[in-house]
Design brief:
400 residues; alpha/beta; TIM Barrel; eight-stranded parallel barrel; four-stranded antiparallel sheet; globular
Length: 400
């Protein structure tokens, strides 16, 4: 497995490449976040970013993300130029040696949290949290989406009403800010009116239509990926449930099977995000890993701790509800199968996803979920599991 680190680039990330080098990671996960959605990523900009990464001693292992314009997700109007631009960006990336492209098909919002600095049970650190009653308060009372009441338990709705009635304007503003913070590369940060407008553009678009639009996207770009030797890998929905009344179609094993079957190709693959999938109590994350292992091109390894009401928070990487050792064992077994078949690309890049804000991270102002020390702790823990499992594979569990 290839250790990588998500870095937002020289103009956005407060963490330097020299600091990343100290983590031991060898690959960088990066994107040209400064380019508006739907525009072509120019060859010279890609080449300049590659040189910057390589001069610091890294490989640009994965692009995360090459974003999909909202019009494609809605199938809104003539999309020929948007698809052409996307394919050209793919070609420009391939020309600079990038082979793995992570993307998502989440309408309007990417990952969604209600708290960016929820206190940890021990110490003064913080974590990301999705609080069901706060999300209900946002949907029902701030957005005025009354039909959202059908999406929450009665006691959650009562908590939402109580919180909203007692909340200050600054608390409501902080909630909006938290929900918008999952869009680090986007140019748009919506206020309430702007978000209502974006949601209205999806009126009448249900799950079947979103799936049809997704299949059209795959039909348009996977043949190009095959020609260029690229591996596309969709990121699961985060959280894996409908949000704001918008259908989400990458939330469980059935969704993943449909996507990978929509266009049968090794180039049409999955980003395994153990945290996103792990937030759904019905998801067997190690089982999903084993089932789709041959199409996993990239992995986000993190853990979550779930509550009965649909809330969850980021746990330490080896804590929480997902058996991380079982997931990693399945990935290592897949690498062994790939190597035995003669594949040169048998190693799976992974990164330690969302870390806790601890120690010198506190107050530094890094991207929510992307501190230095918290992710370094996660990487060290994951590295230990990987090396332990490799040793067991090579030498057996018992020594004579």
């Amino acid at each position: 497995m290839i250790e990588t680190w998500r870095w937002y680039g020289p103009d956005l990330d407060q963490i330097t490449l020299d600091e990343v080098a100290q983590t031991g990671a060898t690959g960088i996960v990066n994107a040209l976040h400064e380019i508006p959605y739907g525009e072509i990523w120019p060859k010279d900009a890609i080449a300049a970013r590659r040189r910057l990464i390589e001069q610091a001693g890294f490989t640009w292992s994965v692009v995360e993300s090459l974003p999909i314009h909202e019009r494609i997700k809605r199938s809104d109007g003539d999309l020929s130029q948007l698809f052409a631009n996307y394919r050209q960006s793919m070609a420009n990336l391939a020309a600079e040696g990038v082979q793995v492209i992570c993307y998502n098909f989440m309408p309007v919002l990417d990952w969604t949290r209600t708290d960016l600095a929820a206190p940890l049970a021990r110490g003064s650190g913080t974590c990301l949290r999705f609080e069901a009653f706060k999300m209900a308060a946002f949907e029902v009372h701030m957005l005025g989406r009354e039909e959202a009441a059908d999406d929450y338990l009665p006691d959650v709705l009562e908590q939402a009403r109580s919180w909203f009635e007692a909340s200050s304007q600054s608390a409501r503003d902080a909630l909006l800010h938290a929900i918008m913070s999952g869009l680090p590369g986007a140019f748009d940060r919506y206020d309430i009116a702007g978000l209502r407008h974006q949601l209205a553009l999806y009126d009448g678009i249900g799950r079947d239509q979103i799936r049809a639009n997704f299949k059209r996207f795959l039909t348009e770009i996977i043949p190009t990926a095959e020609e260029l030797g690229l591996r596309m890998c969709v990121h699961p929905d985060d959280p894996p449930r409908d949000i704001l009344g918008l259908p989400r179609v990458v939330s469980d094993a059935e969704d993943i099977a449909w996507i990978l079957g929509a266009v049968e190709s090794r180039a049409n693959g999955l980003t395994l995000c153990t945290g996103s999938l792990g937030a759904n109590p019905a998801n067997d994350v190690p089982g999903i890993t084993r089932r789709f292992a041959d199409r996993i091109h990239f992995a986000h390894l993190r853990n979550v701790r779930k509550d009965r009401d649909g809330s969850f928070e980021e746990a330490a990487h080896l804590e929480g509800d997902t058996d991380m050792a079982a997931v990693i064992a399945a990935l290592l077994e897949q690498e062994t199968r790939r190597a035995a078949s003669g594949r040169r690309d048998h190693q799976i890049p992974f990164r330690p996803d969302h870390g806790h804000e601890i120690a010198s991270d506190i107050g530094r102002g890094t991207f929510p979920g992307y501190p230095l020390v918290g992710r370094l702790r996660g990487l060290a823990e994951l590295r230990g599991v990987i090396e332990g499992l490799r040793h067991a594979q090579t030498h057996g569990l018992h020594h004579g």
